[in-house]
Amino acid sequence: MLPYSCTEKPGRTAPRGGKALAVLTALLCAASIGVIDHKMRGYEAGIQGLKAQLDASSNAAMRSRRAADDDGMTPFRDEPVSRSVQHDFPGQGGALFTRWGREVCGKSKDIDTVYTGVAGGSHYTKHGGGSNYLCLPTRNVSWDHFKDGPQTKNFLYGSEFQIHGQDDFFSTVNAEGIATVADYDVPCAVCRAQVRSSTVMIPARTACPNDWHKEYQGYLMSAHETHQGRTEFVCVDKNPDVAIGTYESKDGALFYLVEAACGSLPCGPYIAGREITCVVCTK
Question: So which domain of life are we looking at (predicted)?
């Protein structure tokens, strides 16, 4: 053991004849401090590297959370995933349905929002194209191979509520205080009921059968019968959302209320000219 501490000053404490030993101690102390300083720099570099990895991981997680729908939608993945991790929902199966007219699927904990968007379809003046409405996502829209400009002459259009003169059928409680939803774009949400496995839309009903769960009720809508193209009948929520700023009549795939034609339909339960209700149920 050296007779001097590295914190002492050898010039003042060295005994007579011990200056050489003091100098040697000072050199050894300097060497030890150099080794310690080198190790400390190595430790600091390692800590900085770990911190950078943690920051990168945190940023990636934040980007993933932001990429997911703000209302709890399932994150979309571009890369293939194994079957064992493909489903983020608890339980097995699940009933899928589209909630036409709404941007949300509901507040129940057992209802998941797969994605939200706007309704679309073929133009009401065209003979061809598709014959159904689509719920088109407005977030995470992606493209593969494409060529800009019209190539196929087959187009997908947005949609609008066409309820002029029937403004009192749809509530505006979810529509941010506007007077009517007429000419506004039709929103939609694709939903999954976690603990149920069957879905049915029942026209001319406002309630579900016993032991079935009512997801929402509304009115039956489709394209106008005088238009060139045909669409499916869908159940549109009676309390729709609207996207403020979409009030502009650009037509496209249009939504009209459906009325009963008594005579071809059995009269009695159906009344001529009366708007048809609907309900969406899961079990």
Answer: Eukaryota
